[in-house]
Write a structure and sequence with these properties.
The chain has 191 residues and is an alpha+beta fold. The protein folds into two domains: 39 residues; 129 residues, no CATH class. It is 20% helix and 40% strand. The strands form two sheets. It has a five-stranded mixed beta sheet with strand order 2-3-1-9-8. The chain has a four-stranded antiparallel beta sheet with strand order 4-5-6-7, with no helix packed on it. Strand 5 and strand 6 form a beta hairpin. The termini are far apart.
């Protein structure tokens, strides 16, 4: 009989333990349902949605660039077009000093966005410019890292270079053509 009482007591403890586990499991499931927006009872509001994390917005760097295509030749009467007066000092220094007459062919303004290439049609071919990086933005001496490629009228690549230049200053690149003529591109970008 003692064994029987002991067995009954043990069975009752196990049954209570199982009921307790079942109640705890149901309470846990109910809490999980509330987290997912289920109602706790009549008239109660759903649990708030978990906060969403988002990446900080990337700042898009933009510049306004001016492309000036220039024809360079050597003549008996040197002349620089009035439209090119802002770059006259640079045109009189080597390697551009091998020519003495400079005529503006085209002038185009375009915006550049960082890491997006911008193509510009020239009277003699085309140029593509990529703004790679801006350093010192907001300071007196912001600098731009640019990739510049130039193709001739037939689409042949004649120049592919990377430059670091001061914002707002013209920089010049050029090439020699037949008959001692030159093709020059002046480029300036402002932030």
């Amino acid at each position: 009989m003692n064994n029987s009482k002991h067995l009954m007591k043990h069975t009752l403890v196990m049954a209570l333990f199982s009921v307790g586990a079942l109640v705890a499991s149901a309470a846990h499931a109910d809490a999980g349902a509330q987290d997912k927006g289920a109602k706790n009872g009549p008239g109660s509001a759903p649990a708030p949605a978990p906060a969403q994390t988002s990446e900080p917005a990337k700042v898009e760097v933009k510049t306004d660039c001016e492309f000036v295509e220039i024809s360079a030749t050597t003549t008996t009467s040197p002349k620089i077009d009035a439209e090119l007066s802002s770059m006259e000092k640079k045109l009189k220094k080597p390697p551009f000093s091998s020519w003495n007459t400079f005529k503006q062919l085209t002038r185009v303004s375009r915006p550049l966005v960082q890491l997006k290439s911008e193509a510009v049609k020239l009277s003699t071919g085309s140029v593509s410019v990529l703004l790679r990086e801006v350093t010192g933005a907001g300071s007196k001496r912001a600098r731009l890292a640019l990739s510049v490629t130039m193709d001739d009228a037939e689409g042949k690549r004649v120049m592919d270079t990377k430059v670091n230049v001061d914002a707002g200053e013209f920089f010049l690149i050029g090439r020699s053509l037949a008959n001692n003529e030159g093709h020059v591109l002046a480029l300036s970008c402002k932030l």
